[in-house]
Write a structure and sequence with these properties.
Structural class: alpha+beta
InterPro entries: 2-oxoA_DH_lipoyl-BS (IPR003016), 2-oxoacid_DH_actylTfrase (IPR001078), 2-oxoacid_DH_E2_comp (IPR050743), Biotin_lipoyl (IPR000089), CAT-like_dom_sf (IPR023213), E3-bd_dom_sf (IPR036625), PSBD (IPR004167), Single_hybrid_motif (IPR011053)
Protein name: Dihydrolipoamide acetyltransferase component of pyruvate dehydrogenase complex
Shape: globular
Distance between the termini: 70 Å
Keywords: Acyltransferase, Lipoyl, Transferase
CATH topology of the largest domain: Chloramphenicol Acetyltransferase
CATH architecture of the largest domain: 2-Layer Sandwich
Oligomer: single chain
Organism: Streptomyces kaniharaensis
Enzyme class: transferase
Length: about 450
């Protein structure tokens, strides 16, 4: 007789208590293999695929797209082959197909309550026939979680390039099944969904008796909810202050052009600014710190884990470059580029979004000059960089057109006073104006 196993949402790490269902990757009645991803969920940190440790026939699934599932709550039930006796009793392998169940890679799976090893029952990777679900003799059967006779008749899944495209279609009310994909083998791309949305907007609306203005409430979920909670906490708890200065970045831009004229990886402005930050923090280590949870002390960090603001399809995120102080300028550029691309396609992991000790905020990419940002709790400081733009500037006693940027520095006033903050910002501005100063720190 098949045994029905219940798979619950595992501990996804970083203290997360739940996740929102983005899309189901399997249907009820579908045959799945051990460790096959069954659902894609969005946590407060990232979008991840959750694999199921059981192989067999999916008999039920819990939660609709957009619904919040708590850690430990049921996700799916699976009919697996070949255990005799109660489902919660450890059994010896019934044959070559039975083997020890593997823990979910990348998730904090709790130890079994009884201290014994859990076992995976009935591998199904070989063929669907390995899942024996029919009764041995005709007799009235008890109610099953779901019929499994249609295991090989699973619904066809619409081919979509990414879950973000599927979410866009859902939010805009676009039926993916009605679209013809422009990608390889009919893969539905984001542009296909956007064309469908544009067609709906441009289509003449049906006459109505009278236009009715409607208000909508957009729930705070997933990443947006986590950001809102973190910013609110920062605003409540941290007495932040901001100072700023204009800096002539002409020499810094000339250095970048000089570096990129030689063979090797291209160096971005952000990489140069990141290098300046690590040098400045070595000179002012009290700013690479955070205040304890109870506010009774200051934790001074020995390593610089540099966060930077990046815009992705899920909104503004802050990926973290680990051990930025130990990387060369080229290595900083490569890691910044990798994390930026991951932010754009929504593939950042929770580990890549946590643990920062200092943040670099390049809001100049949005075409603005200045900002007074909210600190990234629990960090104590953030350097902001405005757009670099040609402006009239007095250089060596003469009026000239120079490439100028505005630098802002926001800091936790509990960690330092204005003199330390001003000294840090002035040193950063001097490095921007005279990048040769960095050679003293090598």
């Amino acid at each position: 007789m098949p045994v029905v196993r219940e798979f619950t949402l595992p501990d996804l790490g970083e203290g997360l208590t739940g996740a929102e269902v983005v899309r189901w990757m399997v249907e009820v009645g579908e045959v799945i293999a051990v460790d096959q991803p069954v659902v894609e969920v969005e946590t407060a940190k990232a979008v991840v695929e959750v694999p199921c440790p059981y192989g067999g026939v999916v008999t039920a699934r819990y939660g609709e797209p957009g619904e919040e599932i708590a850690v430990g709550a049921p996700l799916v039930t699976v009919a697996v082959a070949g255990l005799e006796g109660p489902a919660d009793t450890p059994a010896e392998p019934a044959g070559p197909a039975a083997e020890v169940e593997r823990p979910l890679v990348g998730y904090g799976v709790a130890e079994p309550a009884r201290g014994g090893r859990r076992r995976r029952v009935g591998a199904v990777a070989a063929a669907p026939a390995a899942v024996a679900v029919a009764p041995a003799a005709p007799a009235p059967a008890p109610a099953a979680p779901a019929p499994v006779a249609s295991a090989l008749a699973a619904p066809v899944v619409v081919p979509v390039i990414s879950p973000l495209v599927r979410r866009l279609a859902r939010e805009q009310g676009v039926d993916l099944a009605a679209l013809t994909g422009s990608g390889p083998d009919g893969l539905i791309m984001r542009a296909d969904v956007e064309r469908a949305v544009a067609a709906k907007v441009s289509a003449p609306a049906a006459p109505t008796a009278a236009p009715v203005a409607q208000e909508s409430v957009i729930p705070l979920r997933g990443l947006r909810k986590a950001v809102a909670e973190k910013l609110s906490r920062s605003h409540r708890e941290i007495p932040a202050a901001t100072c700023w200065v204009d800096a002539d970045a002409t020499e810094l831009m000339a250095l970048r052009r000089q570096l990129n004229a030689t063979p090797g990886p291209k160096v971005s402005v952000l990489a140069l600014l990141a290098r300046i930050c690590t040098v400045a923090l070595a000179r002012f280590p009290e700013l690479n710190s955070s205040v304890t949870e109870d506010g009774s002390g200051i934790v001074r960090h020995s390593a610089v884990h540099l966060g930077f603001a990046a815009q992705g399809e899920r909104g503004l995120v802050v990926p973290v470059v680990r051990d930025a102080h130990a990387r060369t300028t080229e290595q900083l550029g490569e890691e910044l580029a990798r994390l930026t691309e991951a932010a754009r396609n929504g593939s950042l992991t929770p580990a890549e979004l946590t643990g920062g000790t200092f943040t670099l905020n390049n809001y100049g990419v949005f075409g603005v000059d200045g900002s007074t940002p909210i600190l990234n709790h629990p960090e104590a400081a953030m350097l902001g960089v405005g757009r670099i733009v040609a402006k009239p500037w007095v250089h060596e006693g003469q009026l000239a057109v120079r490439e100028v940027t505005q630098l802002s520095f926001t800091f936790d006033h509990r960690v330092c006073d204005g003199g330390t903050a001003g000294g840090f910002l002035r040193f950063v501005a001097d490095c921007v104006e005279q990048p040769g100063m960095l050679l003293r720190q090598l």
